C-alpha cells in the first residue's frame, strides 16, 4: 500500500492540486484498495489525531503575535534601528535588511510573516536609495529564511510535536545557526556591494544609535521574554506564545496606539485563516504519514541506507540532499509531517541527537522556501514587490550558496546547535 499512496500523492502534487486535498485523496484511495477495514473512518481518525496536540496551540498564537507586530508598525522601528546600526557598511540598507530580519525573527517565528511584514518597508527603502530592484527583493527573500531558525519558530514547534522532542531545546539550538545565517548573508552582500558600487549611509553617532535603540527596545525584548520564560521554567511554550501575543497587543494597542479595537477582528480572521489552512494540511498529511509508518517504511529506508553506508555523518548528508530535493517542489509543513516519523527513528538508531537533526531539518527546508521552482517565499515576495518571478529566481541564486554553507557547517559540527541547549537545559 505504500507505493500506491506515494505515487498518487506525487501525481496529485504535480497537478498543482492543494497539498491538503491531494494528500487526503491519496490516503483515502490507498486505504480503500488496501487491507485495512473502514478506510474513511480510519482516515478521519488519523486526521483528528494528527493535530490533537497541546503543543500545536502555540502555532496560532505566534501567528497572531506576528500579525499584531506588523499592524503596530513595529517593523518600521526595527528597520530604522538596523539602518542606523549597520547602514555605514557598503551596501548599508541590504545589511540593515538582514539585521532587521534577525531581530524580527524573535517575534514572528515565520519566514512568510517576516517576508510579508518587513518586505514592503525594506524593498521600498532600498529601491529609493538606488539599489537594483532584483537585488533588493532577493536580499529580502533570503533574509526572511532566518525567521524560523532564531526562536520562536513555528516550524520547530511542528517538529517537536511530531518527534516528541523539547521545544525549548530546539528554540535554543537555533540561536547560533540563525546568527551564522545573518553573518554569511552580510558577507555575501558586502562583496556584491563593493563590486556593484552600491551606496552606504554616513556612520551615525552613538547618540543617534541610542535614540533609535530606545524606540525599538520594547519589541526587541520579545524573544528574551519568550526564551527566558521557557528556559527558566516559568511557562510552557504554548503559554509563552500566549504571553508573546498579549505583549504584542500591549505594545501595539496601548503603548504605540497603532492597533485599534476595530483592527482586531481583521487580525483575528487573518490569523484563523492561516491557522486553518496549516492545520488542514497537517491533518490530511497525517493520514499519508500514518500509512507509511504502518507499512514499516522506516525499516525499508533504514535497510536501504545501511546498504550504502553506516557512517552517521554521511547518512545525515544523504538526508540533507533528499530534503533539499523535496524542498524545491513541496512546502515545508507537508515534508516535515511525511518524513519526521521516518527519519527520526533512523537518526536515533545511528546515535545522532534528534534536537540537532531538528534544527538541521528546519534550516534545510527554509532554504527550500527560496529555491526555485516552488519556493513559497518567492511567490510572497513577488506579490509584494511586483517583480517577475523569473527575475527573482535568477537573482536569488547567489544567496542560496551561503545558506547551504551554514547548513553543511551545522550538519558536520553538532556543537554549533547543541552547545546552548545543553548549557541552559541540561
In short:
The chain is 77% helix and 0% strand.
Determine the number of helices (DSSP H or I, runs of at least 4 residues): 22
Shape: globular
Query: Approximately how much beta-strand content do the residues carry?
Result: under 5%
**N-to-C series of helices and strands:** HHHHHHHHHHHHHHHHHHHHHH
Number of domains: 1
Strand tally = 0
Distance between the termini: 42 Å
Structural class: mainly alpha
Mean pLDDT: 81
Helix residue percentage: over 70%
Report the uncertain regions. Answer: none
Major beta-sheet overview: none
CA gyration radius, whole angstroms: 21 Å
Annotate the secondary structure layout.
Elements lengths: L1 H13 L4 H14 L6 H12 L7 H14 L2 H13 L5 H17 L2 H18 L4 H12 L9 H10 L3 H7 L1 H22 L9 H15 L1 H10 L5 H19 L8 H31 L2 H10 L5 H16 L4 H18 L4 H15 L7 H10 L3 H24 L2 H10 L2
